[in-house]
Write a structure and sequence with these properties.
Length: 657
């Protein structure tokens, strides 16, 4: 049974193994010309020797027909030698070849058996020799088609050996036995060879599979190394690789491209208020919105945190860049659904063109960053294209940094004080200390400028100390009912040790801590909410007060900032410009005043310049106010004179002291 099954397998096509079938056909393809050449030459040789002895149909017509078939098959092979067969076509082709081998075997055997009785003993021996050598040659050519080789071998050997035995001549009988033994040995060799061949094909397939697997793994690794896993956008590394490639291409071809840097405004707050999981959702949404804007030649990447990059592969006009930037900003400023709430964010984008803004990758990136910086400072939520004006700003910035580093802070820094006024009692209740810097080379530098630069370089820590000591020194000379409001930067409260240092300075000054209120802006607080919370709590526990400065310029809600231990909220002066004419501004101021009342917080309205504004905010319920109307920032020496007038007599609302 097992043998029968083996025999059946040996004579059939390995249908379930497409690779093997295709390899068999391919290998056989190389042998075809040799096979037909051998058949052709041997047949002609036998036919020629029988021309005289055998009838024409046996010595001419049949051999010509057989040789013609060989030539036709050879020509066909030549035509299709390069075709690649699909598995569906390869299996029937292999089957056809097996049938063909059988038919050829029968045809050539029949011809030589018919030819055998003609001619002398020599010619008969030639036919027997022809059959034996031709079958061995053909079987070797059919080595890769096991079934065809075995079929051919069986047909030829069986028919010829039987025929020879029946001739009765001992020489032919011996030849028949010999042929049968050689046939068996050949069958054995074919089986062995075929197995080795199938094994090699399988091994190759496995090798290929493992190579493909390795390739896939390395593709996966490459993908992981170049894709940001959160947003599925290309990551920083991939962005810079593209940037380098673009710059090389542009330098070679003389073309150009544009780099954009996008920063989200208000992302930090979302992270702090709703948690990191929600922050991640926002970033994913940003990624999707950016991807929706990608088009041929425009790529987006996530550079880290809430910073994204965009590469516009071609040189674009400023108008096109602004339009593209605006589309990006518009898409990013649509509301985000976060943890059942709606979060409002915006994106600012800084553009720089290669080679106009910079001729190296680092330069063009830096310039895009400078444009972004300018955008974040003054034009949030809009696209900004790098210009030489930004360059001037950067130069100025590094000049200020340098001067600040080498400044004699004790002698160059001083303070101006601006009164905080109670509109009910019409008396000055406090003074806000405002830092001033006069430098021999730069002259007077605006606080917005030097404070921002000092914050970046951490020089602010020293500046705060110097200014706080100077301010406290003044306060000690003021009437005891006046408090000092002193501005802090985020860095001043970024560690507990730094907060402790401020408390120590207050305590060392002898000024009662309750007379000192520290102002901190909303954006500073939201940089690190937990740290801000613990630092402000420390300051409160030491007896000082804390105020939230410039409220309304950031993104947080009052209920959020109420989680911090503030005593006072200062409404930003930007609401005052049209508070007497714009009902929306009026409503905002009113609602903040009401909320402060409900939460038990004091509220200072900043930036009052006209009596009409003052009337309106007073009617809305404001009590503490600050602004040019009640007093401009003044030198310490002027404060004493001011206070003598202000505290010595009550003055009417709206009248300048
Ligand atoms: P701020 O704390 O909101 O200070 C109020 C700013 O508004 C001051 O500008 C003040 O001169 C100005 N101001 C007051 N009343 C009016 C008004 O009626 N109309 C207009 N248009 N402006 C008014 P200044 O002195 O230029 O300070 C700007 C900012 O710089 C301050 O805003 C504060 O954030 C920061 N700053 C000032 N001094 C210091 C300091 O010593 N340390 C820190 N960290 N920041 C400071
Ligand atoms: Mg302030
Ligand atoms: Mg303010």
């Amino acid at each position: 049974m097992v043998r029968l099954a083996r025999l059946k397998e040996a004579l059939s096509v390995a249908e379930g193994d497409p690779e093997l079938v295709r390899s068999q056909l391919q290998a056989f393809g190389h042998q075809i010309p040799l096979l037909y050449f051998m058949l052709f030459v041997n047949t002609v040789a036998v036919a020629v020797t029988h021309l005289r002895s055998a009838p024409a149909w046996l010595s001419i017509y049949i051999p010509v027909l057989l040789c013609a078939v060989c030539v036709i098959r050879c020509v066909r092979w030549w035509r299709v030698r390069r075709r690649v067969l699909t598995h569906d076509k390869a299996v029937p082709e292999l089957r056809r070849l097996i049938w063909l081998a059988g038919i050829f075997g029968i045809a050539f055997s029949a011809w030589s058996l018919l030819l055998f009785p003609y001619g002398t003993a020599y010619e008969q021996a030639q036919v027997a020799f022809y059959m034996a050598t031709t079958v061995v040659g053909c079987v070797f050519c059919l080595m890769h088609l096991r079934a065809a080789a075995l079929l051919l071998l069986s047909i030829v050997i069986l028919s010829f050996a039987t025929f020879l035995v029946f001739t009765g001549y001992p020489v032919f009988i011996a030849m028949a036995v010999d042929m049968t033994l050689v046939g068996l040995a050949l069958a054995f060799i074919i089986e062995l060879y075929y197995r080795t061949f199938a094994g090699v094909v399988h091994a190759q397939r496995e090798l290929q599979a493992s190579q493909q697997n390795t390739q896939r793994l390395s593709d996966d690794n490459f993908r992981l190394a170049s894709i940001d896993s959160l947003t599925d956008l290309p990551n920083r590394r991939s962005f810079f690789a593209s940037l380098r490639a673009l710059s090389e291409q542009a330098l070679g071809s003389g073309g150009g491209f544009n780099v954009g840097l996008i920063d989200l405004d208000g992302f930090k707050q979302v992270n702090d208020i709703y948690g990191h999981a929600s922050g991640d959702l926002v970033l994913q949404e940003v990624g999707l919105r950016l991807l929706a804007l990608a088009e041929p030649g425009i790529f987006f990447a996530r550079l880290g945190g809430d910073e994204f990059g965009v590469l516009a592969q071609h040189q674009l006009s400023n108008e096109t860049l602004v339009a593209l930037g605006q589309r990006i900003c518009d898409a990013l400023s649509q509301p985000y659904q976060v943890a059942g709430n709606v979060a409002e964010l915006s994106g600012t984008i800084g553009w720089a063109a290669f080679p106009e803004a910079g001729t190296t990758v680092a330069q063009v990136f830096e310039r895009a960053d400078a444009a972004l910086y300018v955008g974040k400072e003054s034009r949030r939520g809009t696209p900004v294209i790098f210009s030489t004006e930004h360059e001037t700003r950067i130069r100025r910035s590094s000049l200020v940094t340098q001067e600040l580093r080498h400044a004699d802070l004790e002698s160059e820094l001083f303070l101006e004080f601006q009164p905080i006024h109670d509109v009910l009692t019409q008396r000055t209740i406090g003074m806000e200390a405002l830092g001033r810097w006069h430098n021999a080379r730069l002259g007077a530098v605006k606080p917005e400028e030097f404070i921002r630069i000092a914050e970046r370089t951490e020089l602010i820590l020293r500046i705060t100390e110097v200014l706080l000591r100077k301010a406290l020194d003044e306060v000690s000379r003021w009437p005891s009912e006046l408090y000092l409001s002193f501005n802090l930067s985020a860095i001043d409260i970024s560690t507990s040790a730094r907060a402790r240092r401020l408390i120590d300075i207050v305590l060392a000054s002898g000024v009662p801590p309750h007379r000192v209120s520290f102002e901190i802006t909303e954006t500073a607080v939201t940089r690190d909410f937990e740290q801000a919370h613990s630092a402000l709590t420390m300051i409160k526990q030491a007896g000082c007060r804390v105020s939230l400065d410039d409220f309304g310029t950031g993104y947080s809600s009052l209920s959020y900032v109420h989680r911090l231990p503030f005593d006072t909220i200062k409404i930003d002066r930007s609401f005052m410009t049209d508070v007497d004419s714009n009902s929306a501004s009026k409503k905002i101021v009113k609602s903040v005043l009401d909320l402060c009342g409900n939460l038990g917080l004091e509220c200072v309205v900043e930036g009052l310049e006209t009596s009409s504004q003052a009337e309106v905010v007073k009617a809305l319920g404001a009590r503490a106010v600050q602004g040019y109307l009640f007093g401009r920032p003044m030198r310490a020496s002027a404060v004493r004179a001011y206070l003598q007038t202000a505290l010595g007599q009550s003055y009417a609302l709206g009248a300048r002291p």
